[in-house]
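Lab notebook, bench 4. Still working through the backlog of constructs that have no structural model yet. Next entry is a single chain of 80 residues. Request: give me the structure tokens for it.
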Amino acid sequence: MSLVSAIVPCRNEAAHIERFCISVITQHLPEGWDLEVLSADGQSDDGTRVLLNRLAAADPRFVVIDNPQRIVSCGLNRAI
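Model written out:
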């Protein structure tokens, strides 16, 4: 099996993050491929982290990563 990792740095994206993550995870992939979504949350204070944790609890393909530096490039590096 091959794995595709979608890395999503985010901070205060509660209005859009759930719809975005579901859109990514429902993409059609060729036979034998799987997808994971790595969300690097930059200390959101608008409920983004709650939504991400709910997605991760319901589906193991969602992984929430802490990005305490709140900088997109740092979130990308942590996820990689």
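Notes after review: The chain has a mean pLDDT of 93. The longest helix spans residues 48-58. Flag for follow-up if needed.
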